[in-house]
UniProtKB/TrEMBL annotation:
<feature type="transmembrane region" description="Helical">
    <location>
        <begin position="786"/>
        <end position="808"/>
    </location>
</feature>
<feature type="transmembrane region" description="Helical">
    <location>
        <begin position="753"/>
        <end position="774"/>
    </location>
</feature>
<keyword id="KW-0807">Transducer</keyword>
<feature type="transmembrane region" description="Helical">
    <location>
        <begin position="627"/>
        <end position="647"/>
    </location>
</feature>
<dbReference type="InterPro" id="IPR038550">
    <property type="entry name" value="GPCR_3_9-Cys_sf"/>
</dbReference>
<dbReference type="InterPro" id="IPR001786">
    <property type="entry name" value="GPCR_3_mGluR4"/>
</dbReference>
<feature type="signal peptide">
    <location>
        <begin position="1"/>
        <end position="35"/>
    </location>
</feature>
<dbReference type="InterPro" id="IPR028082">
    <property type="entry name" value="Peripla_BP_I"/>
</dbReference>
<comment type="similarity">
    <text>Belongs to the G-protein coupled receptor 3 family.</text>
</comment>
<dbReference type="GO" id="GO:0004930">
    <property type="term" value="F:G protein-coupled receptor activity"/>
</dbReference>
<dbReference type="Pfam" id="PF07562">
    <property type="entry name" value="NCD3G"/>
</dbReference>
<feature type="transmembrane region" description="Helical">
    <location>
        <begin position="828"/>
        <end position="850"/>
    </location>
</feature>
<dbReference type="Pfam" id="PF01094">
    <property type="entry name" value="ANF_receptor"/>
</dbReference>
<dbReference type="Pfam" id="PF00003">
    <property type="entry name" value="7tm_3"/>
</dbReference>
<feature type="transmembrane region" description="Helical">
    <location>
        <begin position="889"/>
        <end position="908"/>
    </location>
</feature>
<keyword id="KW-0732">Signal</keyword>
<dbReference type="InterPro" id="IPR000162">
    <property type="entry name" value="GPCR_3_mtglu_rcpt"/>
</dbReference>
Length: 917
């Protein structure tokens, strides 16, 4: 016996447990004798004609030196209550085992295989023969020793490692065992575990289902991750074996999670997985705690959305493994034996209370944990700060409740045992009421045959049956954890597996709600236009690299660049000419500038016509007729340049662009600079003497203006001589990463630098004019022109300050020409509009709508000007501490007035009070 036992076990903890078991059996000490010593393990005893054993993980594994830890509400209490619920249903069923009551002895495994092995001795103590011949009572009579209860079959256990340990003991005593949760493929070995059966399918089916899922998603390069132990290692081994047999799938890495992981262990696991980062698919056979810590490590490494997990039934549709890690788990595909929620059990369990469930010795502990309260029990001190249980709490009403996933299988396991006993009773005890002599005791090997022969509809309506290895058929639901595009984030059923896969790929979604299945590939056939790049040291794998940008596929392993004026075909097997475009009149980039230019030309024409019509009126004369007509001409040319910038490039158009681009602004700001300089010189001279300054007559002003303009014209003609105008086709400007959008742009030969140089002289004039406007800001309001010119220049500066970052900030844009042309023309139109609106529209308004104000005022002598300048100087000295701030406030106010388009009204009202110079 010892040899047989030792041959079936390997690990030191199991070996030590078996040594202890052998010692207990040899010396005749079992749980019964320990009861006499007061160390009887706690268990639930339900009286009946036939007794079934039950093994449930009521408590978690305890810390070192302690067998049991905290109570497990779902996996422990829910499953235990499911067995008692099934017994109640069977005992109340007149058609199933009539007149026979099923009893039970239910034990706690504490989620530890060695501890469960000790507890299982309770089930075999009735079968251990003891020699009591030399034992006599004090009166010499033989002792009356109560006959121990005989367990005919065992329901359980949960974990595969526990079931393996217990199955070895029960096999020795021919006690059949039906598990409701153990799925390790090892348990399908009929030669070693012949008395073991299960109502859940083995992981070999699960591994096949997972392989089918991986292939359906087009993956062929994945890693595997397993918890150390029978469940994890056997599951991964089955997956690898099946994938080798099927072919077409490469395992990048196969990593084992230690039973007792050290600090930082999971960070190392993530780093190892990232060594083969293109194997994004991760097949994971692990317990809940390990799954959670793997997700935490991935999140810690900022790899959210990188790994694509395919989880086994230990993950299933559970919330606990992914709690607080939902973003990392998004897109995870999980598998779970097909199940259903049992409504009858929900009604049964939610009605349980401390009063009506005294048969469950662990229910009080569950009650405290579920309702976060404390019961007062003899010998246990009441915890301060924790509320006292009232006993009036109700499950689901006062606490969260969701039926545990394996409840259905626990019920099916009990019913499978009951149906086997019923068939056995029908054959051995026909017509007998109750248990007959042929079934007392129940012969285990015969019962096993009846168990393998059962075939009935289980609690969820699906068939319950076993094959020759005691395995249930493989029926799985396939879930995916989704967070986007659904009302409540959670697991969504996306398919089933029953010997073959049915997967709804269109219902799958991944990180960020993406519907496209991410790739986890190795040796994937390359698409058209992709070259193969072999992976060094991995002959079965290569990377497919797209001939990106403007490359085309020269051969299977080489990409080459297309000529500069060509782009690749869509399938990248060759090259084709790049289309040539230009700015069209119907383009949105042209419509707005043209519209503004037309309005500006109409407005400028109207002002010029008004000034010509009222040429001899005081307002027109006071504004300086000669310079006004020059300035209006410049404004007209500024609007006109919009049409030249949008017109189809040709040699003539390019020449006119060079000529008129800076000319209009040069004319406008030359005239304005001359005006502001004249005003400044008059008032500065007035502070010193009563002698008028030189060159303030209209003729002098015109000569100065034309001299300033000639500088611009000279520069343009030199440019003509050095580099004659011509057109070019720019293939680099609209050359985005996607060659499908590549275009050759027909344009003039003006670079950004030459364009800015063309405008630079006008900008210098504008800045100089602004400086004079600032210096002349102290001119009394009764004197004409100074302040409107100042406001005009402030606002113009703001417009061009906005133009510079937009113009140069789009230098790398694929629509550079369109954006820059629109920006330039709109900026020029706005600057022209500012000049027109602030300098001339108020005058036109007075001329047309208030002719009574267009009258000659008293002429002022230069001496009066000197007096006004002196007064202004004194006032400025009194407010010297405020001048800088006022200057800034003026500029800011003008900017906001301009944006709100309210400044015109202000100018209208101010010009009603203006005094002629």
């Amino acid at each position: 016996m010892a040899t047989e036992l030792h041959s079936s076990l390997v690990s030191p903890p199991e070996y030590q447990a078996w040594v202890r078991l052998l010692w207990l059996l040899l010396v005749g000490v079992g749980p019964g004798s320990r009861a006499q010593q007061g160390t009887q393990p706690q268990s639930i005893k339900i009286e009946g004609d036939i007794t079934l054993g039950g093994l449930f993980p009521v408590h978690s594994r305890g810390p070192a030196g302690v067998p049991c830890g905290e109570v497990k509400k779902e996996k422990g209490i829910h499953r235990l209550e499911a067995m008692m619920y099934a017994l109640d249903q069977i005992n109340s069923d007149p058609d199933l085992l009539p007149n026979i009551t099923l009893g039970a002895r239910i034990l706690d495994t504490c989620s530890r295989d060695t501890y469960a092995l000790e507890q299982s001795l309770t089930f075999v103590q009735a079968l251990i023969q003891k020699d009591n011949s030399d034992v006599r009572c004090s009166n010499g009579e033989p002792p009356i020793i109560p006959k121990p209860e005989r367990v005919v079959g065992v329901i359980g256990a949960s974990g595969s490692s526990v079931s393996i340990m217990v199955a070895n003991v029960l096999r020795l005593f021919a006690i059949p065992q039906i598990s409701y949760a153990s799925t390790a493929p090892e348990l399908s070995d009929n030669s070693r575990y012949e008395f073991f059966s299960r109502v859940v399918p083995p992981d070999s089916y699960q591994a096949q289902a997972m392989l089918d899922i991986v292939k359906a998603m087009g993956w062929n390069y994945v890693s595997t991750l397993a918890s150390e132990g029978n469940y994890g290692e056997s599951g991964v081994d089955a997956f690898q074996q099946i994938s080798r047999e099927a072919g077409g799938l490469c395992i990048a890495q196969s990593i084992k999670i230690p039973r007792e992981p050290k600090p930082g262990e999971f960070d190392k696991i993530i780093k190892r997985l990232m060594e083969t980062s293109n194997a994004r698919g991760v097949i994971i056979f692990a317990n809940e705690d390990d799954i959670k810590r793997v997700l935490q490590a991935a999140k810690k490494s900022n790899l959210t959305g990188h790994f694509l997990f395919v989880g086994s039934d230990s993950w299933g549709a559970k919330i606990s493994p992914i709690q607080d890690q939902e973003d990392v788990a998004e897109g995870a595909v999980t598998i779970l034996p097909k199940r259903a929620s049992i409504d009858g059990f929900d009604q049964y369990f939610t009605s349980r209370s401390l009063e009506n469930n005294r048969r469950n010795i662990w229910f009080a502990e569950f009650w405290e944990d579920d309702f976060k309260c404390k019961l007062t029990r003899p010998g246990i001190k009441y915890e301060l700060g924790r509320r006292k249980c009232t006993g009036d709490e109700r499950i689901s009403r006062d606490s969260q409740y969701e039926q545990e996933g394996k409840v259905q299988f626990v019920i099916d396991a009990v019913y499978a045992m009951a149906h086997a006993l019923h068939s056995m009773h029908t054959d051995l005890c026909p017509g007998s009421m109750g248990v007959c002599d042929k079934m007392d005791p129940v012969e285990g090997r015969m019962l096993l045959q009846y168990i393998h022969g059962v075939n009935f509809n289980g609690s969820a309506g699906t068939g319950v049956m076993f094959n020759e290895n005691g395995d249930a058929p493989g029926r799985y639901d396939i879930f995916q954890y989704q967070m986007s595009n659904i009302s409540n984030p959670g697991y969504r059923n996306i398919g089933q597996w029953t010997n073959h896969l049915r997967l709804n790929l269109e219902e799958m979604q991944w990180s960020g709600g993406d519907r496209k299945i991410p790739e986890s590939v190795c040796s994937f056939p390359c698409e058209s236009g992709e070259r193969k790049k072999m992976v060094k040291g991995v002959p079965c794998c290569w990377h497919c690299e797209l001939c990106d940008g403007y490359q085309y596929l020269l051969d299977e392993f080489t990409c080459d660049m297309c000529p500069y004026d060509m782009r690749p075909l869509k399938n990248r097997t060759g090259c084709r000419p790049t289309p040539i475009i230009k700015l069209e009149w119907s383009s949105p980039w042209a419509i707005i500038p043209v519209f503004l230019a037309i309005l500006g030309i109409l407005a400028t024409t109207g002002v010029i016509a008004t000034f010509i019509r009222f040429n001899d009126t005081p307002i027109v004369r006071a504004s300086g007729r000669e310079l006004s007509y020059v300035l209006l001409t410049g404004i007209f040319l500024i609007y006109l340049i919009t049409f030249l910038m949008i017109a189809e490039p040709s040699v003539a158009v390019c020449a006119f662009r060079r000529l008129f681009l800076g000319l209009g602004m040069c004319i406008s700001y030359s005239a304005m600079l001359t005006k502001t300089n004249r005003i400044y010189r008059i008032f500065e001279q007035g502070k010193k003497s009563v002698t008028p300054p030189k060159f303030i007559s209209p003729t002098s002003q015109l000569i100065i203006t034309f001299i300033l303009i000639s500088v611009q014209l000279l520069g343009v003609f030199i440019w003509f001589g050095v580099m004659p105008p011509h057109t070019i086709i720019d293939y680099e400007e609209q050359k985005p990463p996607n060659p499908e959008f590549a275009r050759g742009v027909l344009k003039c030969d003006m670079s950004d630098l030459s364009l800015i140089l063309c405008l630079s002289y006008s900008l210098v004039l504008m800045i100089t004019c602004t400086v004079y406007a600032i210096k002349s800001r102290g001119v009394p309001e009764t004197f004409n022109e100074a302040k409107p010119i100042g406001f005009t220049m402030y606002t113009t500066c703001i417009v061009w300050l906005a133009f510079v970052p937009i113009f140069f900030g789009t230098a790398q844009s694929t629509e550079k020409m369109f954006i820059q042309t629109t920006t330039l023309t709109v900026s020029m139109s706005l600057s022209a509009t500012v000049s027109l609106g602030m300098l001339y529209i108020p005058k036109v308004y007075v001329i047309i709508f208030h002719p009574e104000q267009n009258v000659q005022k008293r002429k002022r002598s230069f001496k009066a000007v000197v007096q006004a300048a002196t007064v202004s100087t004194r006032l400025s000295q009194k407010s010297s501490d405020k001048q800088n701030g006022e200057s800034k406030i003026e500029c800011v106010c003008v900017f906001f007035f301009f944006l709100k388009v309210t400044y015109v009204g202000f100018v209208f009202s101010s010009h009603r009070k203006e005094r002629l110079f």
